[in-house]
């Protein structure tokens, strides 16, 4: 592995570890995250991991760009991947239904699968949390099977309900709050994905894994889910 350092801003560098998104990247990304946090110490303003990169925002009053590059080189020297299984495993109940997941039927038609098979395939895989972004608590997860992969909507919705579960390309995610969004929606979870009272705010963190568990309507309601159809919330 030969990390590449790219300039983002006068006080921000992007460390590119990989060129291709893959689940096997995560142990290396976690190790790099830990080493960079240790290496920069109090001079680190923020560190944002993604699928293949780490954005390092540092205090320009404590380090100049050359010193920041040197710290990155030292931190990543002889890097070894973190042991697998270090993150938490979350099981998110999901009510798969066209009233809250309007693209469920379209994805079935596009893939040539029955709706029930789309639900089964989406819920049978354990997904890796690669990054947080877009909105507080929004976890980018993957990788979904290629047969379920689908491009984002041409025109994003102005309002997507909290808990909506969707697919975009080979990514899957659940919306933590009401927001605009262009992912293909297939269901809804009652799980509280973002909580200001929770340590770290977000239910999920990079390195965690997630499994979606199909539940019926009654259980979804008992768990606190909102079954208001998407159209009625628009």
TrEMBL record:
<dbReference type="InterPro" id="IPR010016">
    <property type="entry name" value="PxpB"/>
</dbReference>
<dbReference type="InterPro" id="IPR003833">
    <property type="entry name" value="CT_C_D"/>
</dbReference>
<keyword id="KW-0547">Nucleotide-binding</keyword>
<keyword id="KW-0808">Transferase</keyword>
<dbReference type="InterPro" id="IPR029000">
    <property type="entry name" value="Cyclophilin-like_dom_sf"/>
</dbReference>
<keyword id="KW-0067">ATP-binding</keyword>
<dbReference type="GO" id="GO:0005524">
    <property type="term" value="F:ATP binding"/>
</dbReference>
<dbReference type="GO" id="GO:0016740">
    <property type="term" value="F:transferase activity"/>
</dbReference>
<keyword id="KW-0378">Hydrolase</keyword>
<protein>
    <submittedName>
        <fullName>Carboxyltransferase domain-containing protein</fullName>
    </submittedName>
</protein>
<dbReference type="GO" id="GO:0016787">
    <property type="term" value="F:hydrolase activity"/>
</dbReference>
<dbReference type="Pfam" id="PF02682">
    <property type="entry name" value="CT_C_D"/>
</dbReference>
<feature type="domain" description="Carboxyltransferase">
    <location>
        <begin position="3"/>
        <end position="204"/>
    </location>
</feature>
């Amino acid at each position: 592995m030969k990390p590449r350092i790219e300039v983002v801003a006068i006080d921000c560098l992007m460390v590119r570890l990989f060129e291709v998104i893959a689940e096997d990247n995560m142990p290396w990304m976690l190790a790099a995250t830990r080493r960079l946090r240790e290496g920069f110490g109090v001079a680190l303003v923020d560190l944002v991991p993604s699928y293949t990169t780490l954005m390092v925002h540092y205090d320009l009053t404590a380090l100049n760009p050359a010193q920041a590059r040197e710290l990155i080189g030292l931190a990543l020297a002889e890097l070894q991947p973190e042991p697998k299984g270090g993150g938490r495993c979350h099981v998110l109940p999901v009510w798969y239904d066209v009233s809250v997941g309007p693209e469920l039927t379209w994805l079935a038609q596009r893939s040539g699968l029955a709706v029930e098979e789309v639900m089964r395939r989406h819920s049978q895989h354990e997904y890796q949390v690669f990054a947080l972004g877009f909105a507080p608590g929004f976890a980018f997860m993957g990788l979904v099977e290629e047969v379920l992969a689908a491009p984002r909507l041409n025109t994003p919705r102005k309002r997507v309900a909290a808990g909506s579960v969707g697919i975009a390309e080979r990514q899957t995610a659940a919306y933590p709050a009401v927001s605009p969004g262009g992912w293909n929606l297939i269901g809804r979870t009652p799980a509280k994905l973002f909580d200001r009272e929770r340590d770290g705010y977000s239910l999920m963190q990079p390195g965690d894994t997630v499994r979606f568990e199909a539940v019926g309507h009654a259980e979804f309601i008992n768990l606190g889910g909102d079954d208001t159809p998407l159209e009625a919330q628009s």
